[in-house]
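From: lab user (bench 3)
To: helpdesk
Subject: output format question, protein + pyridoxal-5'-phosphate

Hello, I'm new to running complex predictions and I'm not sure whether the block I got back is the full result or only part of it. Here's what I submitted:
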Amino acid sequence: MSLKNNLELIYNSISEQVKLIAVSKTQSVPVIMEAYAAGQRVFGENKIQEMVEKYQQLPKDIEWHMIGHLQTNKVKYMAEFVHLIHSVDSLKKLQEINKQALKYNRIINCLLQLKIATEDTKFGLSIDEAMSILSSEELKNLQNVYIQGFMGMASFTEDEITIRSEFKQLKQYASNLACYQSPIFNPTILSMGMSSDYLIAIEEGSTMIRVGSAIFGERNYI
Ligand SMILES: *Cc1c(COP(=O)(O)O)cnc(C)c1O
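Helpdesk reply: Thanks, we reran it on our side. This is the complete output you should expect:
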């Protein structure tokens, strides 16, 4: 199967309400250009430096999404162009994003990453931590960030029942947290679902899927 076929298969299996982020981590510029030629304009990376290098070499109508664990000291490198940061997991990181966004006179869109997987290897906020950020006084001062919703990753398992219940949990958390709505926080996005579980995620209310290997083939490394 060609990359173009893979993309078409996914486009045909999702509705227009669901946005596809093509996860291009570890993929080369020519390979990303192949996806671009097939019409894909939204790409996700998990390392800031890798995303910056690709941003510099690729067409400027690409929307770049940061989906990987954030290192605070590197936020400055992507502040000029990043479209959505999916992986915000502390108030401190929001403050840094706000500070860097201000330098470019931008408002940077963010999602709070919530922990839903039972394995403890996954990053993310507990519901209580998310509540404390969303209700904090400090958040009100962050005029250059806009929190548009939540991201979560299901456990690394083949067990569909576990995966589905974790996605249900994320959707439930998102509706519980919606009461904190403010000028800085308006939750409309639920980023959940990867190559192996995006159809389940969509059934459970995902609006944004992050798909790598089902488009580009298996990676040699994460
Ligand atoms: C790598 C990655 C994906 C995509 O994984 P695939 O299984 O290749 O689809 C999605 N989300 C995050 C956070 C990732 O790091």
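A quick orientation on your result: The longest helix spans residues 160-177. Let us know if anything else is unclear.
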